């Protein structure tokens, strides 16, 4: 039944958190997808214009490390796991319109263009950082490439970016007894240039957005307001790794874009990809720019700031 033309259908974009595929997902990974599936079906039954997207999140250090351990390339590992996950989702009958991946050429192109735009508009600056460097592996050790003892709780298996025991975000240079995850050597600290996103400049706009958005659940609103009150910090958006989307900034040719800043853009690129395949390459805009269009995110609690502060 074609209703378009006589009445305007409500547009609903349904999204679910992208599974990170360093390992094959467990049932818990399916939870946001399953909840999103129920809602997508409900809105379709109401006759609304629904697009339901998700995809495999495949960049970042956990996949790189797992691939090194298995003696294969990150691309081989993520190709293999993406295939299995896509098949699983089909077998579970999740009614996705597009299940894509962060290695999709459309996603990569969109992320690069988006970053160039914010770079040209002056929201990205460089700063010299101190980071652990392994001379045996001849590489910097971002995030999970370094492990050691947590300076807060004393947990011995803390990772460079976070302690799994006390949950604190960590500065990798503050780890006690640090060692390279790959070869076990003790790293030295080296200075290196990185590109930062100037988050604090968006504080007022974000405050207005969070306070006026009636659709946000209370916990998401309160959590985000608390973060804004505590003050946003500039966030490094580049990493010294080869696995990922190449950073498009002058002088950053050996770096990639940090996962947090590219994977949430996947919601947009997955919508673009879906409509390109349908032969309607501009219709994605109706779902992202039309003020009346709704977007429903099914995510875990720990992903709130990514969706309320970074994505907007
Ligand atoms: Zn700790
Ligand atoms: Zn090493």
Kindly describe this structure.
The chain is α/β, with parallel strands linked by helices. The protein has two domains: 11-122 and 257-310, HUPs (Rossmann fold, 3-Layer(aba) Sandwich), CATH 3.40.50.620; 128-190, Methionyl-trna Synthetase, domain 2 (Beta Complex), CATH 2.170.220.10. Helix content is 37%, strand content 20%. It has helices spanning 27-45, 61-70, 74-91, 105-120, 203-212, 218-230, 259-263, 266-277, 284-289, 304-310, and strands at residues 11-16, 49-56, 98-101, 124-134, 139-140, 146-149, 158-159, 176-180, 188-197, 235-236, 238-239, 256-257, 294-298. A four-stranded parallel beta sheet has the order 3-2-1-13, with helices on both faces. The radius of gyration is 21 Å and the shape is globular. It starts with 10 loop residues before the first strand and ends with a helix.
Q: Tell me the number of helical segments per DSSP (H or I, 4 or more residues long).
A: 10
CATH second-level architecture of the largest domain: 3-Layer(aba) Sandwich
The ligands found in this model are: zinc ion
Oligomer: single chain
The residue fraction in helices comes out at: 25-40%
- Determine the CATH superfamily of the largest domain: HUPs
What's the pLDDT, averaged over the residues? 91
Q: How many beta-strand runs?
A: 13
User: What structural class results from the helix and strand content?
Assistant: alpha/beta
Count of structural domains: 2
> SSE order in H/E notation?
EHEHHEHEEEEEEHHEEEHHHEH
CATH C-level of the largest domain: Alpha Beta
């Amino acid at each position: 039944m074609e209703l378009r033309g006589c009445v305007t259908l409500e547009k609903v974009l349904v999204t679910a958190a992208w599974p990170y595929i360093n390992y094959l997902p467990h049932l818990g990974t399916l939870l946001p997808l399953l909840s999103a599936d129920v809602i997508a079906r409900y809105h379709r039954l109401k006759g609304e214009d629904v697009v339901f997207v998700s995809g495999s999140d495949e960049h970042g250090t956990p996949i790189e490390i797992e691939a090194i351990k298995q003696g294969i390339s990150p691309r081989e590992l993520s190709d293999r796991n993406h295939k299995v996950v896509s098949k699983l989702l089909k077998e579970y009958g999740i009614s996705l319109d597009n299940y894509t991946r962060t290695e999709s050429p459309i996603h990569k192109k969109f992320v690069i263009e988006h970053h160039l735009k914010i770079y040209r508009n002056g929201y990205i600056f460089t700063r010299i950082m101190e980071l652990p460097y392994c001379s045996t592996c001849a590489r910097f050790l971002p995030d999970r490439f370094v492990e050691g003892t947590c300076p807060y709780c004393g947990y011995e298996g803390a990772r460079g970016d976070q302690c799994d025991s006390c949950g604190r975000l960590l500065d990798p240079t503050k780890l006690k007894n640090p060692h390279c995850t790959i070869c076990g050597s003790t790293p030295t600290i080296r200075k290196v240039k990185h590109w930062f996103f100037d988050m604090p400049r968006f504080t007022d706009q974000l405050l207005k957005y969070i306070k006026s958005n009636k659709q946000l659940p209370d916990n998401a609103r309160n959590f985000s307001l608390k973060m804004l009150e505590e003050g946003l910090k500039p966030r490094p958006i580049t990493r010294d790794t080869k696995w990922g989307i190449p950073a498009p900034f002058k002088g950053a040719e050996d770096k990639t874009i940090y996962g947090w800043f590219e994977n949430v853009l996947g919601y947009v690129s997955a919508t673009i990809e879906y409509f390109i395949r349908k032969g309607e390459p501009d219709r994605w805009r109706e779902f992202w720019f039309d003020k009346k269009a709704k977007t429903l995110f099914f995510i875990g609690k720990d992903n709130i700031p990514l969706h309320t502060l970074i994505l907007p």
